[in-house]
Design brief:
The chain is globular. 42% of the residues lie in helices and 14% in strands. The chain is of the alpha/beta class. It has one domain (2-210): Rossmann fold (3-Layer(aba) Sandwich), CATH 3.40.50. Mean pLDDT is 91; it is low at 160-164. It comes from Shewanella canadensis.
Length: 214
């Protein structure tokens, strides 16, 4: 199985990319883990027409190939003004449901403060309607992101007891939650492969009439 992590910050050296790097190292059970940092690619702004994806020099062919190969996705967005990033939303608009339908997606919001719920609500409400990705029931909100996941070194109970530092406990709890979420994503990845195969082998009559959500 293959995992694709998409970080949607519009800034280089972003906290979203830092979280993606940590999750790449923590994800197990996949034959391949890839990370696309959207700000590093000059993606065209999608105008509703297929031709806009393939303008001269567009990297979309390469990106869509990674999406097509993936069995699961992690979508990471910073919270900007209570919204998901424009880069991530543009990416989701460009995704073809032939490449994304019935693939599990773990939603991750990154915020420097203590909010972070609004981008998750936005993505759940309207970002997956036509591409038909399946959002996991669980999601992640990485709050005070500047203070956490700054190394790949694990923190265990022994180090916590030694330091007596409440921030260490928060780091341990966060990493444990990430581990659980990655485990569940892997479970969904394996289960939905069967759904996609059955969908291809026994299609619903005239199913192309229902390629878009209501």
């Amino acid at each position: 199985m293959r995992l694709l992590i998409v970080s949607g910050s519009q800034r280089a050296q972003s906290q979203s990319a830092k979280v993606a790097k940590y999750m790449s190292s923590a994800a197990t059970g996949y034959s391949e883990v890839s990370h696309i940092e959207l700000c590093r690619f000059d993606l065209p702004f999608w105008d509703g027409e297929p031709e806009s994806k393939s303008t001269e020099g567009s990297p979309w062919t390469m990106i869509s190939h990674k999406v097509r190969r993936a069995d699961a996705l992690i979508l990471i967005t910073p919270e900007w003004g209570g919204m998901a990033s424009p880069l991530l939303k543009n990416f989701l608009l460009m995704c073809d449901n032939q490449d994304t339908a019935h693939k599990p997606a773990l939603l991750v919001s990154v915020v420097s403060g203590i909010s972070g719920a609004y981008p998750i609500a936005e993505l759940r409400m309207n970002a997956l309607k036509n591409n038909k990705m399946v959002a996991l029931p669980d999601h992640l909100i990485i709050r005070n992101v500047n203070e956490v996941l700054n190394t790949n070194t694990s923190l265990d109970s022994a180090s916590l007891n030694c330091k007596h530092n409440i921030e260490d406990q928060r780091e341990i709890d966060l990493r444990a939650r990430i581990g659980y979420s990655l485990h569940m994503l892997n479970q969904y990845s394996g289960a939905l492969i069967g759904i996609r195969k059955r969908h291809e082998s026994t299609p619903y009559p005239k199913q192309q009439e229902y390629c878009y959500g209501m």
